[in-house]
Specification:
By secondary structure, the protein is mainly β. It folds into 2 domains: 26-182, 3 Solenoid (Pectate Lyase C-like), CATH 2.160.20; 222-401, no CATH class. Helix content is 5%, strand content 47%. It has 2 helices and 38 strands. The chain has helices at residues 19-23, 43-56, and strands at 6-7, 17-18, 26-28, 37-41, 60-64, 67-71, 75-77, 83-87, 93-97, 105-107, 117-125, 138-142, 152-154, 157-164, 168-171, 180-182, 185-192, 197-201, 210-211, 214-221, 227-228, 232-235, 237-238, 241-248, 251-253, 256-261, 266-275, 277-279, 285-291, 294-304, 317-324, 327-336, 341-346, 352-361, 367-368, 387-388, 391-392, 395-397. It has a 16-stranded parallel beta sheet that branches. An 11-stranded parallel beta sheet has the order 7-10-12-15-18-22-26-29-31-33-35. The protein has a 3-stranded parallel beta sheet with strand order 21-25-28, with no helix packed on it. A hairpin with a 2-residue loop joins strand 36 and strand 37 (391-392). The N and C termini lie far apart (77 Å).
Length: 411
């Protein structure tokens, strides 16, 4: 490029810049040899681009034009705060991992994991077929690296991101002490895990896990059959606010779809779950306040698909299950085309549950509110409140049962 070529904006006082300087504002993976046609290996070129940005030490946005970028190794980001990833949209820019039992993207140093942004990308496993034995098949993996326990990735955002076909889509389970992942904002997130979990955030050491997080507009799709749950699991969460979650599951085999353990003050707003069959565990649930959790769920819809939701003969399905020393609150609940459903199931000592504004629309027989240690029959009464270890198992406030009126005959 000629050295004399310059770029300037027609604004008084705006300085002229070299064209090379202007083009460096956003770095394209194609500048480093990536093709993006789905026919050649692009992982080495992408890695060169990331390493060059980190080596420069200033930080830049790495742009992925529309296309399919084939990978045979995991993409490694050793200093995430210096690298923002930008695609042309999750429907048009795909990083396609072709290697078995291999992550899609690894963030490898939590001491440098602050303030980065990813937008408009799909990270996909070839064939959408990672199996339960592929424990390394994680779409996005947060690693401790050189960091110490209690250090983590924080104040970052994902927007318009899809992670599809891995064993676990997003996880920080790596090494003896997983890093904290907190203060994030994830919006317009599409997770489709075909073996174990859509996401798993945990912290077995110190540092607080993943507090103060916001998620909005998530679509989570389960495997059509033989799904192992929970789809989402979080340990040591505090101050979470999740809204606009949608789950689409054919056959769920697990103990809960959404599980919190050791969490506090978690609020979930406007969740829709569509499913056909639940099996394996005797008491599966949509939400599980596992231990020491105050979980508030507002605006949940459980809806059968073309066929009604009917748990297996030995299974009772609960919308909210409350574990030891936990509190659960349900508000604005709607159940349609389902049977054998318990709205709230406190099951361990010290647990309490509350449900308000409940609407049962076209349920089959056997939908109930509240259940203690007993009452496993999927055909329990509509209202059934039992003591659990001497503690009030559940209480109900202001519940109104609604029915869909039969429309008048046409004139």
């Amino acid at each position: 490029m000629p050295a004399s070529l310059q770029f300037n904006i027609d604004v008084v006082g705006a300085p002229a810049r070299s064209a090379a300087e202007k083009l460096a504002d956003i770095v394209s993976v194609k500048d480093f040899g990536a093709v993006g046609r789905g026919t050649t290996w692009d992982d080495e070129a992408i890695q060169r681009a990331i390493d060059a940005i980190i080596a420069e030490g200033v930080g830049a946005t790495l742009y992925f034009p529309a296309g399919v970028y084939k990978l045979r190794n995991a993409i490694r980001i050793s200093n995430p705060r210096l690298v923002n990833l930008l695609g042309a949209g999750r429907l048009t820019t795909t990083l396609l991992q072709t290697a078995p039992d291999t992550p899609g993207v690894r963030l490898t140093d939590c001491t440098a994991g602050v303030g980065f942004r990813w937008e408009g990308l799909c990270i996909r496993r070839e064939g959408d077929s990672a199996g339960p034995t592929e424990t390394q098949a994680v779409g996005i993996r947060f690693e401790t690296g050189a960091g110490a326990p209690g250090v983590g990735y924080f104040n970052f955002s994902f927007s318009d991101i899809a992670v599809i076909g891995f064993q676990t889509c997003i996880s920080n389970v790596h090494g003896s002490t997983p890093p904290n992942v907190w203060g994030w904002v994830w919006t317009s997130l599409w997770l489709s895990a075909f073996a174990v979990r859509a996401y798993e955030l945990t912290n077995v050491g110190t540092g607080g896990g993943s507090p103060n997080c916001v998620g909005a507009g998530w679509y989570i799709q389960g495997r059509p059959q033989d799904y192992l749950g929970p789809i989402g699991y979080c340990d040591c969460a505090d101050g979470w606010l999740l809204s606009g979650l949608e789950y689409n599951i054919g056959h769920f085999k697990g103990d809960s779809i959404f599980s919190f353990s050791g969490a506090r003050n978690v609020t979930v707003i406007n969740t829709r779950v569509e499913a056909v069959q639940f099996s394996t565990f005797s008491t599966p649930s949509l939400f599980f306040a596992h231990s020491g959790v105050y979980l508030t769920v507002q605006g949940v819809t459980l809806a059968g698909g073309p066929a009604p939701i009917v748990p297996d003969a030995s299974v009772t399905l609960g919308i909210l299950r409350v574990g030891a020393n936990s509190k659960g609150s349900l508000k604005q609940v709607q159940v349609t085309n389902a049977s054998g459903v318990g709205v709230i199931m406190p099951v361990l000592s010290g647990s309490k549950g509350q449900v308000t504004e409940l609407a049962m629309l076209s349920p089959s027989a056997g939908v109930w509110i509240g259940r203690g240690a007993g009452g496993d029959s999927p055909y329990a009464p509509l209202f059934e409140l039992r003591d659990d270890g001497g503690q009030p198992a559940a209480y109900v406030l202001g519940v109104e049962l609604a029915t869909i009126p039969t429309p008048p005959p046409p004139l």
